[in-house]
Amino acid sequence: MEDTVLVVNCGSSSLKLALFNNQHRKLLSALAERLGQNDAFAHIDGQEGTIPLDAGAGHDQALDTLVTAFRDLGLMTTAPSAIGHRVVHGGETFHEAVLIDGDVLKAIESCAGLAPLHNPVNLSGIRATLAQFPGVPQTAVFDTAFHQTLPRRAFLYALPEAWYRDWGVRRYGFHGTSHAFMAAETARLLGKTPATTSVISAHLGNGCSITAIRDGISVDTSMGLTPLEGLVMGTRSGDVDPGLFDFLSGKGFAADEVHRILNQESGLLGLSGQTNDMRSLCELADHGHEPSQTAIDVFCFRLARYIGAMMASLSHLDALVFTGGIGENSARIRAETINHLKLMGFELSPDLNNHHGEFSDGRIESPDSRFPVLVIPTNEELVIAREASRLAGSVAPA
Ligand code: AMP
């Protein structure tokens, strides 16, 4: 029976599972949604229909139901040989993926104050899999770990220093697994080694962030203490003037209400008043809906500004890379963004850009561009699967 690796990704109300074989080929994936609500359900890719879950079902019940369904369908005949978990916040404790033990669980718990919406659900996914698969080595892969190489000048806010010392108030950065994958894939596609490759990596999905990677190492990134800072996102504002909080408190807003609006009702959704979905926004803009075009304009301009800002951390640039649902699929967003960067010498080939670079090893720049520009599909699950099997391989058999 071949070894398999299970990848577990818990969101606040969702659970994603992916099973890989020992060649790291994905065998199956499944998703449970609306956990904690009355209409929770699960779905296995390639299977018809959905699997209802009990009202209010949590991550543990969803895991239980999906694993039972995998077994009943003959899709998982033995326990996986390794399990990898996405964990959002590793604070300053975790610089790389680690095998999970009691101390690691406590440390993830102690980072929960920095990610109250994420780390507790990540922990419940880990606890559920520990109960379901006792004895299988489990690995935590942190969104923040890749950015632990940020220099002080990039991670410190200009705030009272005691806030950093006593409470850990600093920039951590997120999407690290995706940015690390981008760095490695860019090096491979350019025929270089990661340690000699410098990249600006733009991860543009529902959440968006951009990272400067110098010789394989993260040296600046747009997300900060939380994943709210930086670029315009689907529902998140990205950067705003901190003076906004005082202004809004004068208007009668409580801090938690402002927090909710900045996270859930801002970004593309707030600007367009219609949707957080970039594909729908492009269609609306094509039909003359001006607020949707404005949302696209603000998104692209902020992104272009950040690409310029990331240059300050690099001594040379091997490539600008786009990834995530928007970065991989929207030629229009890539073109509108690069259009702002002519002075820096970026130029796209409209032909290659429209074909997502699929005929040119991901490259979409024109021959006159000063820097290569690439489109690379991200694969965070694959990185987690690789890390989980690498670390499981270091465990002595019982
Ligand atoms: P992700 O979070 O990486 O799955 O990315 C989701 C975002 O990608 C959503 O805003 C989608 O509308 C966007 N997206 C996916 N395909 C396209 C496309 N062809 N054009 C524009 N946006 C797209």
From TrEMBL:
Superkingdom, taxonomy of origin: Bacteria
Compartments reported by the entry: Cytoplasm
GO annotation terms (biological process): acetate metabolic process; acetyl-CoA biosynthetic process
Record-listed ATP binding positions: K16, H203, L204, G205, N206, G207, D277, M278, R279, G325, I326, G327, E328, N329
Record: active site: D143 (proton donor/acceptor)
Keywords: ATP-binding, Cytoplasm, Kinase, Magnesium, Metal-binding, Nucleotide-binding, Transferase
An example molecular function term from Gene Ontology annotations: ATP binding
Family: Belongs to the acetokinase family.
Protein name: Acetate kinase
Gene name of the record: ackA
